[in-house]
Amino acid sequence: MSFTSSLKRLARPALRALLLLAAPAGAQTLPAPRAAIAQVLATQTAAWNRGDIPGFMQGYWQSDSLVFIGKKGLTYGWRPTLANYQKSYPDAAAMGRLDFRGLRITPLGPDAAEVVGAWHLARPAALGDLGGHFLLVFRRLQGRWVIVADHTS
């Protein structure tokens, strides 16, 4: 083995250690994207199931650029999306009990991810259950994971 190849072999672990030490301190304490996004969805579910649509909406980007695509077409903006939810689900009976199923959380980079899954609302027999599928686009903005686009059917 040559001196150069020995030096390269020894330098690799040292370089890795230096890179870890040079990483920003906060980078090591941030939750993994999948866990952080799953927590957003769990928080949304809990808010919905207590009849708190504004609390549910905290998982969405509070911006006019938020896009929601549903059976009624496109809705742009956090406030119009909130208003649509409030109109469609005027009381606890209409809201029912929400659960998400078959979640597939796929990071698209350090600050973006997509979530595919199914939603189900268990409601009183007179109203009937509802359900469908969704594709959410999440982004980490100002250190917080939020839904920036929602296509729900």
Automatic annotation (TrEMBL):
InterPro entries: DUF4440 (IPR027843), NTF2-like_dom_sf (IPR032710). It comes from the Bacteria. Residues 37-147 form the DUF4440 domain. This is DUF4440 domain-containing protein. The keyword rRNA-binding does not apply. Keywords: Signal. Residues 1-27 form the signal peptide.
